[in-house]
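B., you asked whether I could sanity-check this one before it goes into the benchmark set. Here's the sequence:
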Amino acid sequence: MQPIAAAALWPVPAINSIGELAHWLGLNVSDLEWFSDLKHLTAKSPIPQLHHYHYKVLAKSSGAPRLIEAPKFRLKNVQRYILHQILQGIPVHSCVHGFVPGRSIKTFAAIHTGKCVVLRIDLHDFFPSIGRARIHALFRTMGYPESVGNLLGGVCTNATPKSVWKQAPAVLPSPSSRDAIFEASRLYARPHLPQGAPTSPALANLCAYRLDCRLSGLAQAAGATYARYADDLAFSGDAAFARSVERFSSRVAAIAQEEGWAVNHRKTRIMRQGVRQHLVGLVTNQHPNIMRADFDLLKATLTNCLRHGPATQNRGNLPAFRQHLEGRVSFVESINLAKGRRLRAILQQIVW
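And here's what the prediction gave me:
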């Protein structure tokens, strides 16, 4: 199969057969077919040792379940090789700021600072909504034969065993959790991009290329600025855009649905001047900044560690609590250096 015209210059390795793919990945053919699991054998197995992923059910802020699917050691190494040798060489849309080298939540928020209105839209179940067929098509678009593309897509996707959801009621004790668990088990039972695999962010960005093109064009026509960080869509503009932002939001939702995603309308926010405008946990009214509540909470934690000892503040029993706090302080420094230095001064006085 010939690649699309745009893909002709992508620096992807030529792999023309299943045998070549297995050799390229350092596997034999039977191991490659086992990891790709095109027949869903691991999803049907009740034995956790035969599964390719470690699973952890978490609760979202809304109370709905979130599933983290972390690939086991050998599969993770295979996925990392695919990421570095194939996926990282393919350019994403210029509006993408998530999982792109040189970009971050700070660059994502910076382009929406000082705007008359900011519109934030969240895509529901961003990763599991991307099915295996879509990943197969993406690899075939790169020019790989169907057999090779199918195996690559199988290695990068997963069908979650239904037994995984037995641990969910303990995490989601609300009365409505039974329905939420049932819907989640149906969604994750279909082969999808697992949230936790090294390849998933890059593949998701590539699969959303058409969505980004359409939304970027829509924003340009409305005189607005568009950017995306994973499942967070952000639009901002002047007073003219502010007057039509509600109608614009409906059009964005329609385009997202046409491209295979659903908008989580409960998280849609229209933030005008005069209120706190925030994206991905950062305030964007004048310049990207840490939220006051987050800064005050971290400062209080560090101060209590200094006064009463770190053990009194490690309520989550984190094994590397010092590194955890150092990471949080470094994050604040990356966003607001002056505030970060104040926290760093407290951190350096703590006796560990």
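One thing to flag: The longest strand covers residues 117-124. Otherwise nothing jumped out at me.
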